[in-house]
Here is the input.
Amino acid sequence: MGLTGKIRKLLDPEARFRTACEEKRRERNQQRGFLLTPEAFMDGLDHTKLDAIRAKHSIPNPGIRIEKYLEMEKWLATNIRRVLNLGLDFQPPKRVLDLGSGAGYFLHVCKRLGHDVLALDMHDPGAAWYVELLALFGVPRVTWRIDPFVPLPDLGAPFDYVTSYMVCFNRHIQPDIWKAEEWRFFLDDLWTRLKPGAIVWFELNPTPDGTHYTPELQAFFESRGAIVDGKRLVWGLSETEYRVLLDLGRLESASVRKATGARSSSEGEPAAAS
Here is the structure.
């Protein structure tokens, strides 16, 4: 790159942000010493307890049933990608709250990467093993049902990141699904739990017609400063930062797949004759 190109890169906010993220990720990868794979995040777990949980609760071919979340390798891979999308793999320790945390895979990955995490989810008698998995991961949980026009409980110190994936707390696919009034109360309350500069990242479930919100709700979210992108509602990032993080997350995920594929091929080769 010539001098003009370097100067242009220094003056371009997107290029500066991308370069900073790339450098932080590269440095953190070198410090960490392990690839972000499902196997890495299963290392160190009590596999006797894990096998007991799986033996007790797994069912063949769970399909869309809740037992699908016992397919640990699959869901760890999904949540590693979520962490990469947020750049949490190269951030210094942050305080992270996950709403509707389920089995806790996302927070398990965050915790292993050095973050201070807290799960919040309602009591579900049909998914009591969620609590068992969270205990196995060492992830603390607050048991709480998010209801319209009811503040969240005391959750301690404010948060740098608040996430929720496959959101159901908005009364998803029910007749009383949240409208702008319910969202306004919830967001106003949530904002009191955030640190300055915090990032909020929600991914909504689709409604039966395949959409994620009405035009009126989209306008409301945008009026509250959200990036509205398909299923995603994101606060605290610029559009440029959001797009760069997604792109870099995609590239890092591909890099890990390539590295693990190369390693597997190498490990599968016969030893060279001496």
